[in-house]
Amino acid sequence: MSGIKLTNVSLVRLKKGKKRFEIACYKNKVLEWRSGIETDLDEVLQIPNVFLNVSKGQTAPAADLAKSFGKDKPVNDIILEILKKGELQVGEKERAAQMDRVHNEVISIVASKLVDPRTKRVYTTGMIDKALDMLSQQAHQGDKSAVGSGAGTPATGEDAEAKPKAKEHNWTGVVTTKSAKSQALEAMKALIAHQPIPVARARMRLRITCTTNVLKQAVKAPAAAKGGDANEEHKAPGTVKDKILSYVEQVEQQDVMGSEWEVVGFVEPGAFKGLSDFVGNETKGQGRVEVLDMAVTHED
């Protein structure tokens, strides 16, 4: 077989024994497979074969596969193992774009969940980005100097000593091998532990009211949904009620009184603007959002 053009292929590489094995996949499909979006192996693999070198078209001899993976292991199982455990090879431009994507997603998740405990206001993504940057610089200077550099944040110097466990929550920066959600959680723990800026987890307790005749109306899909937000693509917009409840993290109570529906529940601070804009626009003045309480929660 002649060489394969690497412009339209993603390689997944696994070192097993003393050999390096590769499989040729369609671009973007590996991550979809790993996240469970794509389940059809034929849609992932360009060629259902194991290679020593894809670009040279050099397939792996059966003897090498048997030696590294076990004598009776079917080729399909070997491919699945490489797909699951192998390292995804991407070009420099792709890697940078993917890193940017994950980085931006992590920052926006963190910014939507943390507040300044003194003012109970959310921070901008720029401030969260800077704070995490400070932490990753400290982590790269080593644990000891990171603790020593606490002088820069006198307000939390005592905290840092009182909680030796904080060292566990070091932030070294975004990687492309973990999901944005799990990294955002790590980032929040590190920010809460080290306090480069004053932060706390927070939730807003809201009361949302709306007339019942508006609730059943279908939500108009935003024009940009197809090209933009991945979450919008997966879930077709439901009713106004579905959409309102999708913003609420935890429902405390839900009632209908006459022609008015009311829900009391907790919302992430970062989701508040989207919810109040939605209620304002979609209910044409027949719905409202009231802030009952802004509770700073102390759990990680």
TrEMBL record:
Gene3D superfamilies: 3.30.70.240, Ribosome maturation protein SBDS, N-terminal domain (3.30.1250.10), SBDS protein C-terminal domain, subdomain 1 (1.10.10.900). It comes from the Eukaryota. GO terms for biological process: cytosolic ribosome assembly. Keywords: Cytoplasm, Nucleus, Ribosome biogenesis. Residues 104-202 form the Ribosome maturation protein SDO1/SBDS central domain. Residues 230-294 form the Ribosome maturation protein SDO1/SBDS C-terminal domain. This is Ribosome maturation protein SDO1/SBDS N-terminal domain-containing protein. It comes from Xylaria multiplex. The lineage of its organism: Eukaryota, Fungi, Dikarya, Ascomycota, Pezizomycotina.
